[in-house]
What we know:
The protein is α/β, with parallel strands linked by helices and 372 residues long. Helices cover 27% and strands 24% of the residues. Strands 3, 4, 5, 8, 9, 16 and 17 form a seven-stranded mixed beta sheet that branches. Strands 12-11-10-13-14-15 form a six-stranded parallel beta sheet, sandwiched between helices.
Amino acid sequence: MASETKAPTMLAALARANAQQLALEAVPRPIPAQGEVLIKVAAAGIAPGMMKLLERGQFKHLPTIPGHEMAGTVTLLGAGVDEHWLHARVRVHPMLSCGHCAYCLTGRPHLCAEAAMMGHAALGHGNLPRYRCYHKGGLAEYVRAPVDLLDRLPEHVSFEVGAKLHDLANAVRALKCAALPPRGRLIITAATGTMGTASILLAKFYGAQSLTLVARSRKRLEDVLPLVGNLPVHIVPLDTLGPDWETTGALTEQLRAQFPDGADGVLDFFPSGAGSVQAMAALGTGGTFVHMGANNAALPLSLREMMLHCWRLVGTKACTRADTNEVLALLDEKKINADVLITHRFALQDVNQALQLMLSRREPMWMATVHP
């Protein structure tokens, strides 16, 4: 009697309902269908918001494999996929959408009613059929993905940078939303985190002529200064403003000392607290405040005040394919070295320790990758 052949398995990190951490388990290896490929994951990114979104119920299909940032090598092709993709070095663009609504047709798929991300949360309010099919992400040895979401990586670009390209493109989206005028005076808050450091690296390509960087520690701010290049830079450590800075307006005072007539733009990545509002109050006439930190703080500013200053307040989430293409072009032309942003690397088996370290903020962490 012939022995049964077991289906191949892979190690994956599973997110389950009401779980406080991910479960490492052997699961069936995916098989690519029509228009799909199988990718051997070389690097996947992690973000602190992942577990918070899981707790809030924004992962709609559980259990699942999280991880919306992923890069690796195509190892198997589904039917109808061009053979030139086999063995290609790729990153996966995680944004899922309907592809035919007004938002999708104008390059804004992250606003689509069907918007969601592979290995991440549902963003839209529609039926999300594509998310149902591709909700599993890259914290595993292999991932199945539709070929239309693949981007080739230049040979000199590491898989780690390929995995974190989504965050680099998020920074591009924020910088483009700021639409800086020629004098380009830009404030970046939470400047020592993932989005802050990415924005610092890219700022000079999007009109910044001088930077003011805000974060909680002088030491951590000094560590990011090599990313600035030759732009004039000023730092504002929150730990030098006094213990009651959130109620005294000391941050606004410090920022106004640097820009007496106000800044042209603020990229705000503060996830909580009064820093967002105080940074906004440092805008000059005609300035733009771009928020991508998911801060729940209320704005105490009046509409009249916003009108008189001609301020623009822009909330933005995620990035577009055009944003990622711009980052890929900068990398391909060797205009930026994004490898310097990867400060932490973990094995897949250590993913829970990695998430705990990221959430604790015990040590500086710019970008972190996991390697199955």
